[in-house]
Amino acid sequence: MIDMQKMRDYRNIPIDKVGIKGLRYPIKVRDKKSSGLQSTIAEISMYVDLPHQCKGTHMSRFVQMLHTFRSQVSLESIMTILENMKTTLEATSSHIEIIFPYFIEKKSPVTGSKGLMDYTCTIIGSSHPDEDRDMVLRVAVPITSVCPCSKEISDFGAHNQRGEVCVSTRFKKFVWIEDIIELVEHAASCEVYSVLKREDEKHVTEFAYNNPKFVEDVVRDVGKVLLEDDNITWFSVSAENFESIHNHSAYAFIEHGDPGIHGGGTSH
Ligand SMILES: Nc1nc2c(ncn2[C@@H]2O[C@H](COP(=O)(O)OP(=O)(O)OP(=O)(O)O)[C@@H](O)[C@H]2O)c(=O)[nH]1
């Protein structure tokens, strides 16, 4: 059978990233609360570089290789997967993006009603020639925000909305997803819950009203804590409020630290 991918290409153009995108796959992620592993379904993209003289990469090998890891796909195994990708695909660099919902059981603030909150997390890893590696963990956290300006100028009420804060980090040791979520939720006007009874709803409404925040306040409050954390070598924080009085969002972004030679391109 002819192997098209193995044929020669004459255009003299190397390819930076080629591979598979959006493959759904079960993974396990370390769960701080249970001290065990949480099973979830990820959407995985895997790429390698391709030299100018090669016509095509071998797409089937990405999936075959991933399958050898099966339920071992996790934060800890990513670097091994990246190295395996380079060997299996005969490449000099490899790149993986894993997007998954991470679930945390939360109790409502007054009645203690339990429900699962989902947080979208992304792990971006890459391996380059000479063992040069990079990994970014990104966590998106929904929040409630009350506008300080609206509260100040209005005779009663203040506009409030759901927002999303995205924290991306490069780090020396392991980082718990739960710790990033907690940090962001503390910086919000109020955190978001999946279950709220009427007593809870009264509490979160008043709590948020007493704690108004601009998007600027949120990114600064999150950034201040990350700056004090020795384990974090680089971070970015974005806050987007889906404004209830506009048909556009309010947005703020900060980035700090050394993103390494790979730049801050994976920031938000
Ligand atoms: N490179 C490349 N492959 C594609 C493209 N579209 C489909 N394919 C894949 O080509 C694959 C088959 O090629 P290979 O992965 O090289 O399969 P193979 O030659 O049987 O496997 P090896 O012997 O391991 O190289 C199929 O899985 C298709 O999904 C494309 O645009 N580019």
TrEMBL record:
Pathway the protein acts in: Cofactor biosynthesis; 7,8-dihydroneopterin triphosphate biosynthesis; 7,8-dihydroneopterin triphosphate from GTP: step 1/1
Sites marked May be catalytically important: 147
Gene Ontology molecular functions: GTP cyclohydrolase I activity
Gene3D superfamilies given in the database record: Urate Oxidase
Domain of life assignment: Bacteria
Pfam families: GCHY-1
Enzyme Commission code(s) on record: 3.5.4.16
A GO biological process held by the record: tetrahydrofolate biosynthetic process
Enzyme class: hydrolase
Catalysed reactions listed for this entry: GTP + H2O = 7,8-dihydroneopterin 3'-triphosphate + formate + H(+)
Keyword Lipid biosynthesis: no
The entry's keywords: Hydrolase
InterPro entries noted in UniProt: GTP_cyclohydrolase_FolE2, GTP_cyclohydrolase_FolE2/MptA
PANTHER family xref list: GTP CYCLOHYDROLASE MPTA
Function recorded in the entry: Converts GTP to 7,8-dihydroneopterin triphosphate.
HAMAP family, per database record: GTP_cyclohydrol_B
Family indicated by similarity: Belongs to the GTP cyclohydrolase IV family.
Protein name: GTP cyclohydrolase FolE2
Originating organism: Desulfocicer vacuolatum DSM 3385
Chain's gene name: folE2
